[in-house]
Design brief:
alpha/beta, 2 domains, two-stranded parallel ribbon, two-stranded parallel sheet, 4 helices, 18% strand
Length: 102
């Protein structure tokens, strides 16, 4: 499980954004999920789309599951903007990408 933070994150905030991101990732998997292995939660820094693609390639991912949501200010922009993270991940992925509204 991966969360890529933009480089503009203020690391001096308390509680720290890294700890908050890790906690949110871990809370996504219910304790009674029945998974054979506990998923690893990872936080990276950089461009979210390229960071996601880089980690997927490094891990030889078979599937990317990507949470998507409309842009707050202009909902139509998220679906049509070629710069949107989801668009870049889908276009650049070497494996299937499942998008989930979140």
């Amino acid at each position: 499980m991966l969360h890529v933070m933009g480089e503009y994150v203020d690391l001096h905030k308390k509680p720290g954004p890294i700890e908050k991101a890790l906690q949110r990732l871990e809370e996504m998997v219910p304790e009674d999920s029945g998974l054979w292995f506990k998923p690893e939660a990872v936080v990276e820094f950089g461009d979210p789309s390229y960071g996601t693609l880089d980690v997927a390639r490094e891990q030889k991912a078979d599937l990317i599951v990507l949470a998507v949501r409309p842009a707050k200010d202009h909902p139509s922009m998220s679906a049509h903007s070629p710069w949107a993270t989801a668009h870049q991940v889908i276009a650049g992925a070497r494996c299937p990408v499942l998008t989930v509204r979140g």
